[in-house]
Protein: phosphoglucomutase (alpha-D-glucose-1,6-bisphosphate-dependent)
Amino acid sequence: MTRIVTVPTTPHEGQAPGTSGLRKKVRVFQQPGYAENFIQSVFDVVTPTPGATLVIGGDGRFHNRTVIQQAIRMAAANGYGRVLVGQGGILSTPAASHVIRKYGASGGLVLSASHNPGGPDEDFGIKYNIANGGPAPESVTAAIHARTTGIDRWLTVEAADVDLDRVGEAMVGEMTVQVIDPVADYADLMETLFDFDHIRKLVASGFTMRFDAMSAVTGPYAHEILERRLGFAPGTVVNGTPLEDFGGHHPDPNLIYAKELYDLMMGPQAPDLGAASDGDGDRNLIIGRGRFITPSDSLAMLAANIEIAPAYRGRLAGIARSMPTSGAADRVAEAFGVPCYETPTGWKFFGNLLDAGKVTICGEESAGTGSDHVREKDGLWAVLLWLNILAVRGISVDDLAKSHWARFGRNYYARHDYEGVDKADADALMAELLAALPSLPGTVFGPLVVAHADSFAYTDPVDHSVSANQGVRVLFEDGSRVVFRLSGTGTQGATLRVYLERYEAPSGHLDADTGVMLEAQVAAAEAAAGIVRHTGRIAPDVVT
Ligand code: G6P
Ligand code: ZN
Structure:
């Protein structure tokens, strides 16, 4: 019998998982016992049945390998029978979700801070996913947090580090560790979902793309799927080698951090499709030649065409979107006669709907789209679905967007982010807004009249759990709206997000400038919330 070592510990403050697991600076994670306390709290809460399988993988950022070795030894001490870990410590978040499902694991540790920068002075994160492959629900994350506040020991075994770079098997204590190819299972799954032959024909006919992996986890996946399996020319995938610090960049596929791609797509040398993914591979950015597709529109356009892809033929059961995501998808759902669910921000809220077969596709304004093939959002999946649709319909991204708006109308949409705001200032702004809610209806802001204002609460239709206080909505009489929310994924101060939306019917202005179209909503947001007064900021840091 391997000796289990019990290491006494005391709680570390602030180990509450946020929107997407525990995220902190690397320096915080490097404190003695910090990661161990959290991982032990997870194991204490989920209490694996002896012999259970655990999946471990991360986005390859700085500190990934250290925590993986700690977690493997702790898993052995906590009774797991098998750990599956991606070669090099790599597993994209959607690939981890798939591996959990495919091999019947009881759960997985996903090591990532998603789109946040990496490196010794940047961010790290640990998230626990449950047996369905999705992020743990709030009941579980709350229990984990509670456990971190009372933890007094963690368990490990004395064992050497596992060689993560070689595919194969090793023993750690009584537990088997399988180092697996991180790409193969995922790439095979994609082939079962989409019409690769059709896409290959499109490529052969001269269709070009650029995929920016942002020096993050999707590089190896994109090389294998886009270049090797689909025949795109070598060089289609750029920044395709995962780096511990993402080359010093923000691996966030938006118009700020993927500006080079954006500029290319707006210029004369643009390929037919530009796409990018984030640090851990679950987000996506889609840009056609001369046409950026907002994530909210992408969800609606993919939902309207999803039945083109072989695995989805005749089975669009429903659509789900997070509350701040635009209502474009709702119009598709209405036209197709399927339900549309509005959930709080965070992919975990889609899990029950997907498990219950109530929805087939889900998406968020934060550049996430996915389906019931896994229980995470999936960046490359979205790119492949776009390719499949373009291949079969034989039109450009721009034409697809225009035909979509001509049928469903267009939801003009923007998000204004105020980053690194003083936490107390941000809290005061939200508190004041909440207090003002009852008096807002009827208030006139320029051309807009408030019809309804509330603090969004969600009752899960499957387990009936209630999540309150999920953002403030101000809805205007003309159908436009402004939403206020504090980010749940930041690691410094507070980030205020202001989401702005306005609908134009098919008979309206379908190709106008988004900034111009949303001027009244921007002014109303300032008037209602006093952003300048509370934060001292006269303009947002990021507009997406
Ligand atoms: C992560 C989650 C998403 C969520 C996003 C919101 O990426 O996986 O599901 O939409 O965080 O981030 P925020 O910073 O707005 O809380
Ligand atoms: Zn991510």
Notes: The chain has a mean pLDDT of 97. Residues 93, 114-115, 278-280, 282-283 surround zinc ion (ligand 2) (CB under 6 Å). The radius of gyration is 23 Å. The CA atoms of residues 11 and 151 lie 6 Å apart.
